[in-house]
Design brief:
4 strands, 2 helices, about 80 residues, four-stranded antiparallel sheet
């Protein structure tokens, strides 16, 4: 997994971009089917960290051919 320049934040908004992840194809396939649960383990890890830190957050997911981008908003 390559992460260069991947993590950016501005106050309570984080942007994480992961290039070439092992689950890229699965995330894209499930998202195209509008599945209620995606196999984006990086997002699950970030969400788990925020939950353990007693922080509530929402996130949006964008996929391209080579990367997955998460935009987190901490409430």
């Amino acid at each position: 997994m390559a992460v260069g320049k991947a993590l950016r934040w501005n106050a309570d908004v984080w942007q994480v971009k992961i290039e070439g992840s092992a689950t890229q194809w699965g995330v894209q396939a499930l998202a195209s089917r509008r599945a209620p649960l995606l196999s984006d383990f990086a997002a699950l890890a970030v969400g788990g960290y925020l939950l353990a830190s007693n922080r509530k957050a929402s996130h949006k997911l964008r996929c391209s051919d080579t990367s997955t981008e998460q935009l987190w908003t901490i409430v």
